[in-house]
Amino acid sequence: MFFFQIILILVLILMIYNIIEVKKFNKNGLIVEYENNFINELDNIKTTIKKLNPVLINVKNSDLNIQSLISKNLSYNIGDVGYSMKKINDSENIRILKNKNIFSDLCKDKIYFNNEMIHSSQIPLIKQESISLLKGYQLLSLEYCKHNYNIIYILEGEVTIFLFNPKHKQDILGKSLESIKKYAHKYHLKKDNLLIIPTNWYYIQESTDNVLEYHCDSDNIFCVLYNMIR
Description:
seven-stranded mixed sheet; alpha+beta; 14 strands; Jelly Rolls; five-stranded antiparallel sheet
């Protein structure tokens, strides 16, 4: 019994420590871009991530795009959103956000980036992987990055992303999207760009054409419950 009490106390201490850590942010954080082969820059990337800066890298992937996804899976129905691939093909305006079924059913074996490569801690991660599919003009709602690692990977198309440092939280919450853009770091993302956003940041995405995105939201095991409810 005493042994289990010790284990429980250690787990609670680790949970409290990691929850305190996940609340931190870098008020001077800026996007740091690595243009070279990111494999050769892993140590620098990990250091930049530990400093709670957004990181942009370029990761070549398979030619996964909306058209190939549709043509190879015409009979597939996305039950949780009520779309079929045929409907997506025939529609000019589509907004499907962070859909786990599309990832697990159609894309899981076609995306090769493993976010644990940029994870500097030995603490295991719990990952939530998903796909966003956009057609036509889209201005997406303000998104809060509550996970330890928040990854957006552009598989097709281009988006403009507006990143907000947590220091602007009171300036942006409850305001119109257009009015808060002035507080953002604005960046143009294109195919093969992979953006790692620190916890506690916010972002808006704007696009005008077909966009296919991979998302990976990861929590370390001591923060997962806290991140779920905040």
